[in-house]
Amino acid sequence: MKTVAAVRNALLGVAILAGAGISAGYPEGSPALAQVAPAHQDATAVGETFVAARQALLAKDGSGVLELLSRESLARVERTRKAALDGEMTGLGPSEKFGALGLQHYLKPAELRRMTPAQIVEFGLRKNWLGPNVITQAGMERVSVRGDRASGTLVVNQRPVMVPADFVRENGEWRVDLTRAMDLTDAIVRGTAMATKRSEDAVVREILDRAVRNQAPAR
After folding, report:
1. Which of 78, 100, 132, 145 is geometrically suited to a Cys-Cys bond with 150, CB 3.0 to 4.6 A?
2. Rounded distance, CA 162 to CA 198, Å?
3. What is the tens place of the pLDDT at every residue in 157-195?
């Protein structure tokens, strides 16, 4: 099922979202430097954010990963963590429910209460939630910058994937923006629910069950 792979790669655990685990890439071609200098500089800055995110993921540096997320991305991560703690899922989108249920599956309530968001990220990285290829064999092509937003085509093993690679400039710094990836995941889940005449929650739980079975059992 394509839905399972899309959701798992986009945001298994939500705190370590796949959009952050990619290496820098730049647009091909070399137009006149004087005409494209600002855009090139922005693309370079976006690439540097990619590199920093990839290094933080490889180093299993939870704080480093979270520092590179946009404000809206962090807000969604925090909603997910809170839902995992108190069990209140009302008002959450499918992607946030998926993350909260995943955290509840892998971590006991006492562990969740004790751990910071950064420690949760590091726990997920130690468990290899993203899979070995997402971090080490992922990249991005065709970077496009429009004002304070940027995007590119995410590739894994040199093949494009459907997870958006988006960025937003905040306080002069480029940050990974997971909003569209999570919205796309929500749309996929809702579309699957409609097509199969099931509830969104039933589809979320099926995806989680499949993802859990695909994870290594050891901590």
Report:
1. 145
2. 24
3. 778 777 778 999 999 999 999 888 888 889 988 999 999
**Distance (Å, rounded) from C-alpha 175 to C-alpha 20?**
9
Question: What's the token pair of residue 183?
Answer: 């919205």
Angle at 69 between CA 66 and CA 70, to 5 degrees: 140
Assign 196 a pLDDT band (cuts: 50, 70, 90): very high
Residues 113-151: pLDDT tens digits?
Answer: 999 888 888 888 887 766 555 666 677 778 889 999 998
**Got the DSSP string for the chain?**
-HHHHHHHHHHTTSTT-GGGS------S----HHHHHHHHHHHHHHHHHHHHHHHHHHTT-HHHHHHTB-HHHHHHHHHHHHHHHH---TT--HHHHHHHHHHHHHS-HHHHHH--HHHHHHHHHHTTTT-HHHHHSEEEEEEEEETTEEEEEEEETTEE-SS-EEEEEETTEEEEE-HHHHHHHHHHHHHHHHHHT--HHHHHHHHHHHHHHTS-S--
Q: Work out the burial of residue 98: count CB atoms within 10 Å of its CB; fewer than 13 is exposed, 13-18 middle, 19 or more buried.
A: buried
* Element containing residue 138 per DSSP (H, E): strand 138-146
Structure tokens, 131: 């899979």
- Please state the length of the chain: 219
Q: What is the pLDDT of residue 14?
A: 39
